[in-house]
UniProtKB/TrEMBL annotation:
It comes from the Bacteria. Keywords: Transferase. It holds the Pfam family CoA_trans. Transmembrane segments: none annotated. SMART domains: CoA_trans. The keyword Nucleotide-binding does not apply. This is Succinyl-CoA:3-ketoacid-coenzyme A transferase subunit B. PANTHER family: KETOACID-COENZYME A TRANSFERASE, SUCCINYL-COA:3-KETOACID COENZYME A TRANSFERASE SUBUNIT B-RELATED. One of its GO terms (molecular function) is CoA-transferase activity. It comes from Neobacillus vireti LMG 21834. Belongs to the 3-oxoacid CoA-transferase subunit B family.
Length: 222
């Protein structure tokens, strides 16, 4: 296996590790919206039939689909092919966003470019680069009852993503509730990060080294 192939494999393993841990946060009955990127993988690890997946483009009851059954017109908000669960319902995008803004989404799991030490995120624009669209994250941060981040702890170049303050345009002034990375899980309590769990094989020293933001170690190792 070449170095590049190994890098791809390692990246996928990390993404699935994060997604699998994020899926443990979901307990039905609940309606969940999965963002683009790592959050889409969470669907593979949901085994509770009372967890219903919602997508901004107008489907409640999203499920996986086998390649031979894919319908090019049936996609999620990230334009990835999806299936429809028994009892699924369709509606237009305006109704879908009304569901979000009306507080009918129990949990949103989002990807992120940066998050600061108060739980405020930036995930829609990189200064100097083209903006494809804002997406639904702004609405989900306002309307979802609980917001969880599923993200890598650092960027490809090793730079930190959990910062004292975001340097990219923020998505909303609302703080998220939980942050899940391949290294650790943080809860945001009163705009303060609390380390509540280390991923297997990870040390507190590694988390501190790769986290710019201040946080409280709730594991007892201060």
């Amino acid at each position: 296996m070449s170095t590049r192939e190994k890098t791809i494999v390692d990246k996928k393993e990390i993404q699935h590790l994060i997604a699998k841990r994020a899926a443990k946060e979901l307990e039905g009955p609940c309606i969940v919206n999965l963002g683009i990127g790592i959050p889409t993988l969470v669907a593979e690890y949901i085994h509770d039939e009372n967890v219903f997946l919602h997508t901004e483009n107008g489907l409640l009851g999203v499920t996986d689909v086998e390649e031979q059954d894919m319908d090019p017109n049936l996609v999620n908000a990230g334009k990835l092919p999806v299936g429809e669960a028994i009892g699924a319902s369709y509606f237009n995008s305006a109704d879908s966003f009304a569901m979000i803004r009306g507080g009918h989404i129990d949990v949103a799991i989002l990807g992120v470019l940066q998050v600061d030490q108060t739980g405020v995120i930036a995930n829609w624009a990189v200064p100097g680069k083209n903006i494809m669209g804002v997406g639904g994250a702004m609405d989900l941060l306002v309307g979802a009852k609980k917001v969880i981040l599923a993200m890598t702890h650092t960027n490809k170049d090793g730079s930190r993503k959990i910062l004292k303050e975001c340097t990219y345009p923020i998505t909303s002034t609302r703080s998220v509730d939980k942050i899940i990375t391949e290294l650790a899980i943080f809860e945001v309590v009163n705009k303060t990060l609390r380390l509540v769990e280390l991923m297997p094989g990870v040390t507190i020293e590694e988390v501190r080294e790769k986290t710019e933001a201040d946080f409280i170690d709730s594991l007892g190792d201060v």
